[in-house]
Design a protein that fits this description.
Layout: E1 2-8, E2 24-30, E3 37-47, E4 50-60, H1 67-94
Antiparallel strand pairs: 1-2, 2-3, 3-4
């Protein structure tokens, strides 16, 4: 999977945030030779003891008949990748890295 473009959504309410953004990022993802479109947002929400990472993805395929099956397969893989990333980040934070 290759991320084609990530843009930080600008917000004037950025006081005290590292990097000057509001923690919301838009993503458009291309998978080589797979006729699906994936877009979504990643949002870091500050909470008392850290942050919550909200991930919203929209996956679409315009191919008749097989498109729904392809979307289900890609959705399952995206969920696995997101879960793996969560585990990796959690483990690194727990170790203080």
């Amino acid at each position: 999977m290759r991320i084609r473009r990530i843009q930080q959504k600008k917000n004037s309410n950025n006081v005290g945030r590292r990097g000057g953004g509001d923690g919301v990022y838009k993503a458009n993802i291309d998978i080589a030779n797979v006729p699906v479109t994936i877009s979504g947002t990643l949002e870091l929400e500050p909470v008392e003891d850290g942050c919550v990472n909200h991930v919203r993805m929209e996956i679409d395929c315009g191919i008749p008949f097989v498109g729904k099956t392809l979307v289900e397969f890609v959705t399952k893989d995206c969920k696995r990748i997101i879960a793996d990333e969560y585990k990796y980040i959690s483990d690194r934070l727990r170790l203080g890295l």
